[in-house]
Amino acid sequence: MREIEPGQGLTLHQAQPMDRHDVASVMFSEGFAERQIRQDARHKARVVEAARLLVDTMKGRVDGYLFREALRPTNRYAQLELAEKYPGLMEFRDANHPSNGIGLRETMSTSDYSALTVDVLDRLLYGYYTAAPITNLPLVRKHTLRDFRVVARYEMDSATRPFSRMSAGSGAGPNDFPSLIPHGTGEPPSERAMDQAAREVLGPTQRTTYQPQLYQGMMSVNWRALVNDDLGIFQDQTQRLAISGNRTLYSFITGLYVASTGPNTTLYSSTFSNLVTIAYGAASNNPALSFQGLLDGLNVLERMVDSDGQPITFSGTLYLVYGPSLHTTAMSLTKAIQADISVGGGTTNAQGFPSQRLRVENWPVSGMVPIQDKYMRLINTSSSKETQWYLFYDPNSQNRPALELGQLAGFETPQLYQKVPNTMRVGGGVDPMLGDFYTMNQDFKGLLVMGGTQIDGRSTVASTGLGV
């Protein structure tokens, strides 16, 4: 590596062409190899001394002014001190001109630069991933709660059967109209009696209840870490708390209709007859997500009746809910223009295809809205975690929604807080950077207050997708 005068840079010289023998002769005659060895030794020593100077400066054993003089020499006395403490680091060509001292800046190369600076110059901190949004919010009816007390939901069934045809009577006596005679004094006829339809019993009263719970996440950052944070690592800490809060809400809603074993048995059971199985009107048991599977799900929904066995209907948007593994299938089904279905499930030929097929417009999914729930496969750990799918009618369009979510007023979204710093300079004000007086930590936390329950499963159906 060639040494140059300060400020002069490297000068290119035009030379006459020389063949290989001439070059070898010149190198031999001028002792090129010997000079190169000596020059390499000087450079190695200079790098070692430069690294020692940098370490001493960082640990406070040497004033930073000397390090600046090593990079850009301006003061002869400082250079003399450097030469004395770090032999081989500085060289002088003219004692009358301090600026002629050859400092580190003039002799750096790509080989010793990293040893001099100890670290790289180009450093970059990549941000966090794009967090998945809360996609399943449309599946719950939201209620704003006033406090932490238990929430009760009541349902009354019966008294909706068709009228009974009355036989004609003379009206002469009380037995002419037996179907209108009460069973006892003040007691209504049995076919008009109303029953509570709740699935939970608390004391003498049947009701569906839940209680909002407090969810919180906390984090602390020490003052020393904040001082050393030249990449901005801790600047997005509150954003990470917000992401944690959203994921808490996301997974909580999923847990209302998905369990570790598959569809939540409180919501999907024989009580509501809302499993896509042959027993409840499907052509096959738990069909995979397909055009025929969706037809089976719609058939089960259309066959829904109330607790008296009377027909009911649903309105509003129909949501198709599926996991990440079924995304392409769901998109293909909802975007398709036409589809083929077997006629009445007809007989199959030797290749296994139905002998009769019908091409129809893709009307069953024309108004269906697909929702991908990424937490389904994380909560359901059974064999159906990749194949399960669900249909939900818009809960806000039903008198009895499938799911309810209650959130405390003011805490519908994650609320972020910071602990008030209590460290004050003597004779001055509070220093927010120092945080807590004892720990010197800055403390942050996020809060959510929510609860929820299953109300009525007749507006939703589920299939494990396993075909059994």
Structural account:
This protein has 468 residues and is of the alpha+beta class. The protein folds into 2 domains: 24-117, no CATH class; 219-463, no CATH class. Helices cover 25% and strands 18% of the residues. Strands 1, 8, 16, 17 and 18 form a 5-stranded mixed beta sheet that branches. It has a 4-stranded mixed beta sheet with strand order 14-11-15-19, with helices on one face. It has a two-stranded antiparallel ribbon with strand order 2-7. Helix 3 packs across helix 4 (76-85). The longest helix has 27 residues, at 32-58. Residues 1-15 and 93-102 have low confidence and may be disordered.
| Low-pLDDT ranges | 1-15, 93-102
Mean pLDDT: 80
Taken together, the total number of domains comes to 2
Using DSSP, what is the number of strands? 19
Tell me the overall shape: elongated
The oligomeric status of these chains comes to single chain
Biggest pleated-sheet summary: 5 strands, mixed
Count of DSSP-assigned helices = 11
User: For the terminal residues, how far apart are their CA atoms?
Assistant: 77 Å
Indicate the structural class. alpha+beta
Estimate the strand proportion. 15-25%
Helix/strand order, N-terminal first: HHHHHHEEEEEEEEHHEEHEHEEEHEEEEE
Radius of gyration: 40 Å
Helical content stands at 10-25%
